[in-house]
Amino acid sequence: MKRFQFACLSIVVSGIFLGSFKASAAQPEPHKVWPRPPSRLELPTPYGVLSISTGGYLYESRLHFNDTEVQPAIEGLLNIPYAFNLPGAQVALISISDGNEACPISYRWVVLDNTGYRVSPVFGSCSEQIKVQASGRVLQLHTPSQLNPNDIDIHVYDGKTLKRNTIKPG
Predict the structure, then answer these.
(1) Within a domain: residue 20?
(2) Is residue 1 part of a domain?
(3) Total domain count for the chain?
(4) Spatial CA neighbour of 162 closest among 118, 121, 128
(5) What is the C-alpha to C-alpha distance for residues 51 and 66, in angstroms, rounded to an integer?
(6) pTM over 0.85
(7) How would you classify the pairing of strands 42-45 and 48-53?
(8) Nearest to 123 by CA among 134, 132, 135
(9) Cα 141-145-149 angle, rounded to 5 deg
(10) How confident is the model over 108-137, as a mean pLDDT?
């Protein structure tokens, strides 16, 4: 009887060990894990409301600040996935899809402050897979490189200048 119990215990322990080994072996590398971005159509801020007005057609949404269309116009299938409070400003990331299958998504930063708003140039690597972070007044968007999906493009915006660096992970 003790032999039977020992054999059962050995099988259970082996199963737990192998199960945990398989689970850890199945985990993707950290640089290949891309979180799903949140979604919002309106962002109330101390400086006013940034909002997306939807149109009748899928790619006709437009970005507004305090009920006035943002210039330069930002239109398409829009989303406000991320927003950050910075000293004296609030910044929102806008994702833009205009139906272009070759480059399904691009991005723009919108900086809101006491003087109104500033819009960054269009940027991105045509991927919905992003990681976003803010450090001080510097914003970064990490995404797989369009030229080599194993590399990471880092788009850095300081509120005035937009730069792209490409790194090899690991």
Answers:
(1) no
(2) no
(3) 1
(4) 121
(5) 8
(6) no
(7) antiparallel
(8) 132
(9) 130
(10) 95
Please give the single-letter amino acid code of residue 126: C
Cis amide prior to 44 (ω within 30 degrees): no
Residue 102 maps to a domain: yes
Nearest of 34, 36, 37, 30 to residue 169 by alpha carbon:
30
User: Region 11-36: what's the mean pLDDT?
Assistant: 46
Strands (E) across the chain are located at 42-45, 48-53, 61-65, 68-69, 75-86, 89-97, 106-113, 116-119, 131-135, 138-144, 152-157, 162-167
Tokens of 68: 């006035």
pLDDT score, position 8: 39
Structure tokens at 125: 């690597």
For residues 155, 116, 85 and 142, what is the CA-based torsion angle, rounded to 10 degrees? -10
Amino acid at the residue 32: K
Q: Is 170 exposed, middle or buried (0-12, 13-18, 19+ CB in 10 A)?
A: exposed
What amino acid is encoded at 98 in this protein? D
Domain membership flag for residue 18:
no
